[in-house]
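ok here's 5'-nucleotidase SurE, seq below lol
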Amino acid sequence: MRILISNDDGYQAPGIEALHDALKDIADVEVVAPEHNNSAKSNALTLHSPLYVQRAANGFRYVNGTPADCVHIALTGLLSYRPDLVVSGINNGANMGDDTIYSGTVGAAMEGYLFGIPAIAFSQVDKGWGEIEAAARKARDMVEQMQRHRLIGQAPWLLNVNIPNMPYEALKPLRLCRLGRRHAAQRVIEQQSPRGDVMYWIGGAGAAKDDAEGTDFHATAHGHVAVTPLKIDLTDHDALGYWAQTVARIAGGGGAGQ
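and the structure came out like this:
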């Protein structure tokens, strides 16, 4: 089994080092990750400046680009083979609910999925890397079980996995979940630069809004590893019928400017 590993915290982050070390004994692993922290870059690709790939002393390769750049480059020319699995993480903090829209960790995994490769995004619920070795061990368990059940190398799928910062023995079993929702983000932080200009910092993520049973928020709050299957199609299929009628009325209604 051959695995491509990336992340959004950068190639020197403890999370990707722990994930690499956990998987290297069960697979041939290759790390291609951002040079610097690229959190909240989602699926962004760099289109208007060149990208460079360097190799670190530990063998990891790093790119002056986004998480999606790293996976894209790896799959379209850097690697001489097609990986069986793409894994991203382990992220420094949760990627639950609305986080998945912005997450570079999810974006890296999604890039692999877009190329037809099964992919998993791993995150720890709390920041700070507490119990990172336990999280890496749990990630390895998942990959091993998926390989054993022949889920790797088949049709592509995309999983988002959030692991509580707990000792390995204290982690409860995997729980399949839907995404919850967060409240709106906190207000921007306004400051004055040394030159007297007004500058802004994006506020923190909102607290959980929908953390009902069955959500990723609920599962991790109760010590479970939350597993959520994701898809690319953003179409609101339930609303297609309503909008079919509405758009037909709009299209046929004309207007003063027509």
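fwiw The chain is about 30% helix and 25% strand. kinda neat tbh
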